[in-house]
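Field log, afternoon session.

UNIT: design team B
ACTIVITY: writing a sequence onto a fixed backbone
BACKBONE:
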């Protein structure tokens, strides 16, 4: 049964112990775990939460993680961008934190990276004279290349790799969502305008629909958008005091992880019950 047809229940999988910790959630393929970015002083680190237990995967002195980490479609690798010692660096490491390496240090990275479904490259926004454009960064050491020439940030690839969706510039408190094919040609999408603070887009299995945050700047719910018909469906009806800062969906489409913004940020897992 599709995500849109299920009721959402939740359970806590982890929370911060400091009011100034920052978190970004990340489900891992085929498992009940998430990862968070935790801030302590001037440094940030990436942690894995599994069964209520936290394990540090990566840390860097004076490092600030840009956007949110991205996991490869096979669940084996994590990509993340950091600003450290005046540089922006794109890293790749194994899902257990081993063998972290810098993929590129020559770009002014911005926002969250995204793995191409074939695992051969990472797509990320790069700031060029104040305007972000999507670049493709091969993981084998070849040179990065411009991918999308217009303003473009926070990419999300369709599971089959046919196209990628991304966010356009803020116009007031809103922005539009666009798409291009793997060959950088315009790809048709239903007209979609979102409220600032809701740039994260997540595909459901099959690539026909995406899940996103929609609502007011300080209060949003999860919605499902059918990219073929344009049909929209609200998935959650959260109370006004429940402020979602981020979310993600497991690759099988059965679980949603929510990050709640409050004095002590919590990470919760929404279980999608089987019929």
């Amino acid at each position: 049964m599709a995500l849109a047809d299920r009721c959402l229940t939740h359970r806590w999988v982890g929370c911060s112990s400091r009011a100034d910790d920052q978190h970004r959630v990340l489900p891992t393929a085929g498992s009940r775990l998430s990862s968070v970015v935790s801030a302590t002083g001037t440094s940030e680190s990436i942690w894995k939460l599994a069964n209520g237990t936290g394990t540090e995967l990566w840390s860097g002195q004076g490092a600030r993680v840009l956007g949110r980490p991205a996991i490869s479609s096979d669940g084996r690798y994590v990509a993340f961008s950091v600003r450290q010692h005046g540089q922006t660096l794109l890293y790749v490491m194994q899902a257990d934190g081993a063998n972290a390496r810098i993929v590129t240090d020559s770009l002014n990275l911005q926002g969250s990276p995204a793995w191409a479904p074939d695992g051969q490259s990472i797509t990320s926004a790069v700031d060029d004279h104040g305007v972000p454009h999507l670049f493709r960064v091969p993981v084998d050491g070849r040179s990065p290349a411009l991918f999308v020439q217009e303003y473009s940030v926070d990419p999300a690839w369709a599971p089959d790799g046919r196209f990628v969706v991304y966010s356009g510039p803020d116009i007031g408190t809103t922005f539009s969502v666009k798409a291009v094919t793997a060959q950088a040609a315009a790809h048709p999408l239903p007209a979609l305008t979102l409220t600032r603070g809701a740039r994260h887009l997540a595909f459901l299995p099959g690539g026909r629909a995406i899940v996103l945050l929609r609502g007011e700047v300080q209060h949003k719910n999860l919605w499902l958008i059918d990219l073929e018909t344009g049909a929209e469906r609200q998935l959650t009806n959260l109370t006004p005091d429940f402020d979602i800062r981020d979310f993600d969906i497991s690759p099988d489409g059965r679980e949603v992880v929510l990050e709640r913004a409050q004095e002590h940020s919590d990470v919760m897992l929404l279980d999608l019950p089987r019929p």
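LOG NOTE: The chain has one domain: 3-271.
NEXT ACTIVITY: expression trials, pending approval
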